[in-house]
Design brief:
The chain is an alpha+beta fold. 29% of the residues lie in helices and 31% in strands. The longest helix has 19 residues.
Length: 467
């Protein structure tokens, strides 16, 4: 592929593709950039063009077999569908998640504000990785090669490259491989069987044991979050995109929606109501989300359950330790910090939670790496204190959490945001694993905690028929 820019872009095999004009406009800009020279070790560059409205999940569905991601902010104003890899930063060896964010910050020096690395990491990066999570490893952040982005009412199509390192022929070949109209996603089918790990009986026994132990030993945890993995089997391969689309058709306000497909046969997806932190410039926001009640079948029952949640001493203690953890973690990183005066209740489709927002202004030089190190894991997903609770989780839980309850999100120059990956599932062939957890304190009633797991899982489970 040599010659003028026109001849280069003309070589794209896009016949019959309804998005051909968009791809060709982007190709011409890429040729101009990549033939102009540049440093191979310089920051990544973003090239974008305006685009027509396209359903992001349908666009992703047309591009199977390679790395893909989906991210939607909780207000629904920014949605990103990414395909391919321009750059991937891996959490290798003994590195910490905070060091992964530090590596992204180094790559973003001199980059434009609209470049973001997406990804996440394991809940416990020190624990061994099981076979079903091998495609995800300890953690990574990816700069997608191509992005379809909706910001409000505006759509753009973008490509990330590093001049001096990326060759124009290679990038145009990758762009040409995107040919194909957005695909129709199938409706999810009913499942054939369900398996809980641990079983109900084993989980109830664990809750009774933890409830009796918490707070009894010096240095031990006063709260432990115990999780459950529920596996569903289907007649055919499960389509993570179809499940996410079905879930999005049942509006769940205030949730982050995410999907990470490393292209190795597994997909991690979810709809999390919990923000770990959001940094805009030097402004930081976080929130304590803990304590649960189901939604009522009638307005009267719903109001009663809400008042019961607000008045429950056990739920109040569970929530208070999360608030304390966030305030203590941010106190040394901010020159101003405030939180909501009153506890509010976040009402989701199937459950409601106690919530308090925390906001502040960061001290000069405070990094995203420092924020992640201070906040993850919170007592909402680990326990209190987190280090002691992590040790008990490692001893008692009979499965690998993987990325469940870990931080997922993106890192940017002036805008970094991470959610806690709860209400999430792992798609693998004919199977879907859903993960949910509950905080166990002295006085926890095991049957009530099991019912809480069922309520939390019902949001994701409602995405397929017959349930």
């Amino acid at each position: 592929m040599s010659g003028s820019p026109d001849r280069r872009t003309a070589a794209l095999n896009l016949a019959g593709d309804p998005l051909r004009p968009v791809y060709e406009r982007l190709a011409r800009r890429l040729v101009t950039l990549l033939t102009g020279g540049g440093r191979a070790d310089g920051p990544p560059r973003r090239v974008e063009v305006d685009a027509p409205a396209v359903e992001p999940l349908a666009w992703l569905a047309a591009h199977r077999g390679g790395p893909r991601l989906y991210w939607a902010d909780r207000d629904g104003q920014r949605v990103v569908a990414g395909v391919g890899i321009a750059e991937r930063l891996d959490l290798d060896g003994g590195a910490t998640p905070a060091q992964l964010l530090a590596a992204a910050a180094e790559r973003l020096e001199g980059a434009s504000a609209d470049i973001r690395y997406y990804g996440g990491c394991r809940f416990d990066t020190g624990a061994a990785c099981s076979g079903r999570w091998q495609g995800f490893g300890r953690g990574w952040l990816v700069l997608p090669r191509f992005e379809w982005v909706r910001e409000g009412d505006r759509f753009v199509f973008a490509c990330h490259v590093t001049p001096g390192r990326d060759r124009v022929q290679t990038i145009l070949a990758e762009l040409g491989a995107l040919a194909g109209a957005p695909a129709t996603l199938p409706a999810p089918a009913p499942h054939r069987w369900r398996e809980d790990v641990p079983t109900r009986a084993a989980w109830l026994a664990l809750v009774d044991r933890i409830s009796g132990e918490t707070g009894q030993q010096a240095g031990g945890p006063t709260k432990v979050v115990l999780a459950r993995r529920t596996s569903f089997a289907f007649d055919g391969d499960v389509d993570g995109l179809a499940l996410l689309q079905a879930y999005l058709r049942r509006p769940e306000p205030g949730c982050y929606h995410f999907l990470f497909d490393p292209g190795e046969g597994t997909t991690f997806m979810g709809a999390s109501p919990e923000r770990l932190f959001h940094r805009r410039g030097r402004h930081i926001s976080s929130e304590a989300l803990a304590g649960t009640r189901p939604r009522g079948a009638t307005p009267g029952e719903d109001a009663r359950l809400k008042e019961e949640l607000l008045a429950c001493a056990k739920e109040g203690r569970e929530h208070a330790c999360v608030v304390r953890h966030i305030e203590d973690g941010l106190a040394g990183l901010t020159d101003h910090l405030e939180r909501d005066r009153d506890i509010s209740v976040v009402e989701l489709a199937h459950v409601q939670h106690l919530s308090v927002r925390v906001r502040g202004r960061l001290r000069p030089g405070v990094s995203d790496a420092a924020l992640l190190a201070a906040l993850h894991p919170t007592p909402a997903v680990a326990g209190d204190p987190p280090a002691a609770a992590l040790a008990r989780i490692g001893e008692l839980e009979p499965f690998d959490r993987g990325w469940y309850a870990g931080p997922v999100g993106y890192v940017g120059v002036d805008d970094t945001q991470f959610a806690v990956a709860i209400r999430s599932g792992l798609v693998r062939g004919h199977h879907l694993d859903l993960y949910v957890g509950a905080g166990i304190l002295p006085g926890s009633r095991s049957a009530d905690e099991w019912n809480e797991l069922e309520s939390k899982m019902s949001g994701m489970q409602s995405a397929w028929p017959g349930d």
